[in-house]
């Protein structure tokens, strides 16, 4: 079962759960105050504005009780995915390198954008070919990924970088590839009625990664 964590201010949890269920996964909402994720095989931190984005985006959420369990699962090699605000939380918790700051033009971006898969050895990109281009929705103000060390593992890049992210990073992963943060929303691109179904391929990869981890 995949746990979709809900923080105060999260607003993409149901879309994320629905997207996962559409590709055959079992998803269940998990409250940020839960400190026991026994039975949860993988975790998704969805988009939104956790705790109103006070202090820094994701800073308060990264200190929620549930994050102790998320860190445990990540350390055990379980699949962990952060989408948009969830990406910010993963960086604030230290599970991913770098930080997310305001977009280059200091504007909120809300549109479909094109990304390219550059690393196929992660829970989000396995099953996809390197060079695959996908069109998914980007909805963020602080989506500009920066990494002073220059060592962040970029696994998906913007074709035309809309927010100024270092190395064009749309998604980054940890060294093991089991923790991935992505700024665009694959769950908002699972049905053609929304303009693109390209995000479905990423969710399918994540769901398969959960099955593989449990073998």
Structure at a glance:
This protein has helices at residues 13-22, 65-75, 85-92, 199-213; strands at residues 2-6, 27-31, 42-45, 80-83, 99-101, 109-117, 133-140, 144-146, 153-158, 169-173, 179-182. It is α/β, with parallel strands linked by helices and 215 residues long.
CATH superfamily: Class I glutamine amidotransferase (GATase) domain
Regions with pLDDT < 50 over 5+ consecutive residues? none
Mean pLDDT: 95
What is the CATH class name?
Alpha Beta
Helix and strand element order: EHEEHEHEEEEEEEH
How would a textbook summarize the main sheet?
9 strands, mixed
Helix content: 10-25%
Identify the strand order in the major beta sheet: 2-1-3-4-11-10-9-6-7
Strand content: 25-35%
- Determine the number of helices (DSSP H or I, runs of at least 4 residues): 4
Outline: globular
Radius of gyration: 15 Å
User: What structural class do the secondary elements suggest?
Assistant: alpha/beta
Calculate the terminal CA-CA distance, rounded to whole Å: 14 Å
Taken together, the total number of domains comes to 1
CATH architecture: 3-Layer(aba) Sandwich
What does this structure look like?
The structure is a single chain. With 215 residues, the protein is an alpha/beta fold. It has one domain: Class I glutamine amidotransferase (GATase) domain (Rossmann fold). It is built from four helices and eleven strands. The strands form two sheets. A nine-stranded mixed beta sheet has the order 2-1-3-4-11-10-9-6-7, with helices on both faces. Strands 5-8 form a two-stranded antiparallel ribbon. It is globular, with a radius of gyration of 15 Å. The model has no long low-confidence stretch (mean pLDDT 95).
């Amino acid at each position: 079962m995949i746990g979709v964590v809900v923080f105060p201010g999260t607003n993409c949890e149901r879309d994320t759960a629905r997207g996962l269920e559409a590709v055959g996964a079992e998803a269940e909402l998990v409250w940020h105050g839960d400190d026991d994720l026994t039975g949860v095989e993988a975790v998704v931190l969805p988009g939104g504005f956790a705790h109103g984005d006070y202090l820094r985006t994701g800073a308060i959420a990264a200190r929620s009780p549930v994050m102790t369990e998320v860190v445990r699962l990540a350390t055990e090699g379980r699949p962990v995915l952060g989408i948009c605000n969830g990406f910010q939380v993963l960086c604030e918790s230290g599970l991913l390198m770098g930080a997310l700051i305001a977009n280059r033009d200091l504007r909120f971006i809300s549109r479909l954008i094109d990304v390219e898969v550059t690393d196929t050895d992660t829970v989000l990109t396995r099953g996809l070919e390197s060079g695959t281009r996908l069109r998914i929705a980007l909805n963020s103000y602080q989506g500009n990924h920066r990494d002073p060390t220059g060592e962040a593992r970029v696994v998906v890049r913007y074709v035309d970088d809309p927010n100024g992210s270092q190395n064009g990073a749309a998604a980054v992963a940890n060294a093991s590839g089991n923790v991935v943060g992505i700024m665009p929303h694959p769950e908002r691109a699972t049905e053609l009625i929304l303009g693109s179904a390209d995000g479905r391929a990423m969710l399918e990869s994540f769901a398969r990664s959960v099955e593989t981890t449990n073998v």
